Amino acid sequence: MDTSYPREDYLPMTSHKRDPSPTVITVGSSVVPRDHLIWSIFNTIYMNFCCLGFVALAFSVKARDQKVAGDVEAARHFSSKARCYNILATVGSLLLPLLLTALIITGVIHLSKLAQESIDFFSYQLSMSDDDDK
Questions:
Q1: Which residue spans traverse the membrane (predicted)?
Q2: According to DSSP H, which parts of the chain are helical?
Q3: Domains of the chain: which residue ranges?
């Protein structure tokens, strides 16, 4: 082990001047957009309300392709569409069963009240006809 100084691979700086380099300012965001691929696959398999999960999957794949190709704006556009379709598929898949359940419950309640009123009406009519016979 060589511990002698100065080492051969060390070259001291000869000048403390900086080279003038142009200043680069990035205006747009350099954040790569998300492609929402996992969410789209989940919606396609489990929550494919009106095929919106499949449409979201198609836009997610397009967003990923554009991201790999380096076209950030197109990737952002397709990512936004995939996100919107994923939201629609998720909301539709969650709200539709809830809406149907609420309609079935209110329908059963209404039918039970209607049946009770019918029973009350016919029992009243029968009780009146029994009084007329006497």
A1: 37-59, 85-111
A2: 37-45, 52-69, 72-133
A3: 41-128
Ramachandran sector of residue 70 (left: φ over 0; alpha: ψ -120 to 50; beta: rest): left
Place of tokens 């000048």: 15
Tell me which residue has tokens 């919106």.
Answer: 52
pTM of the model: 0.60
Residue 88, pLDDT score: 94
CB-based contacts of 64, cutoff 8 Å, min separation 6 = 35, 37, 75
For residue range 56-88, list pLDDT tens digits in order: 999 999 999 999 999 999 999 999 999 999 999
Token pair of 13, please? 């700086």
